[in-house]
């Protein structure tokens, strides 16, 4: 059989007295081809035997061909499916409004598709952001990389393979004084490389993403005292790109999660031997209620890891990934998750009502934890992994600086924030930046 490749299997069917043929409208290759219907039926679902079906076949093909024929229309037949994730909610960080959300793209073509550009538009078609080249590379991650143990990066991932999918992680920072729009519009540019013809390029508008208008939760800090570092915080790949499948649904519960660790008076995370939990300055710190609420769920009794451990040394399942944890129901479908707590340290029980600042448990090193720390995030259901994460703001904190994003220095007990480099900046109703060292009242 002669090779017959198309994208989207676009066809128009026509019938003569005794001879039936299907015409393949191949908008991505240089020529259209004709083949007997008997040979085509094996590859395509269209049946060309019955004249009453001709109108349906031809109409489907022409609807896709309109843009290539120069006819006025408002739709594109390019074979890519674009779906937006949960509506973003504006959150303030470093005196700037941020909108974090995802776009899921699937390639339904029989050729790779290159994403060459994305423009985000606000009200009045005002351009809020433009992504090309390296800035776009950093946002795009193939879905098969999102289940890897290491943090997925998007470098060189702008090509979507045949039948493959990618997730675009958008972190939109609005300029000072710009109010968040009610909705975000997206303009995508794509390119397809063809063997025997010039590249096919197209630009069209994608989905409209509505911006959540609900008031953002303002919380008290989950710990107290000085020099706490917000590791894996706003936009960090470890949490931001951690998709989790629960009961057939992929979600990002840790979209706005923070791993809190404390620096000691020497500017280090631990002293002496890092294989002992007791040598970490944050181990055993009191974990506090962030708002009025009640204890909706908890798990206790899981053993702790000892000091720093490699991922391969921990047997992690969906049931023990958060170790000993506690969930507070804050009302309005808002649930606060505290993870990796010390076993036997809980000061509350299921159903208890709590007040802001009340001690709940002690910071530990249980579950999927490589060192003592408090993992904290908000979700929209009583399921630490089977829910969507959303943002919040902390009522008051003082930022002392930003520690270097260098795992080797952190893991080897290096000085992360010398006192002579600290610069105190008061923040009210903001989300801490990634790696920022802060002090709470």
Characterize the structure shown:
The protein is mainly beta and 441 residues long. The chain has three domains: 11-69, no CATH class; 80-210, Immunoglobulin-like, CATH 2.60.40; 218-440, Glucose Permease (Domain IIA). It contains five helices and 29 strands. The strands form six sheets. Strands 15, 16, 19, 21, 22, 23, 24, 26, 27, 28 and 29 form an eleven-stranded mixed beta sheet that branches. Strands 7, 8, 10, 12, 13 and 14 form a six-stranded antiparallel beta sheet that branches. The protein is globular and about 65 Å long. The N and C termini lie far apart (76 Å). The relative contact order is 0.12.
Main attributes of the structure:
single chain; mainly beta; Immunoglobulin-like; 3 domains; 5 helices; 29 strands; globular; disordered N terminus
Low-confidence stretches: 1-73
The CATH superfamily name of the largest domain is Glucose Permease (Domain IIA)
- Amino-to-carboxy terminus distance: 76 Å
Average pLDDT value? 83
CATH topology of the largest domain: the name is Glucose Permease (Domain IIA)
The helix content, as a percent range, equals: under 10%
Q: Class by helix and strand content? A: mainly beta
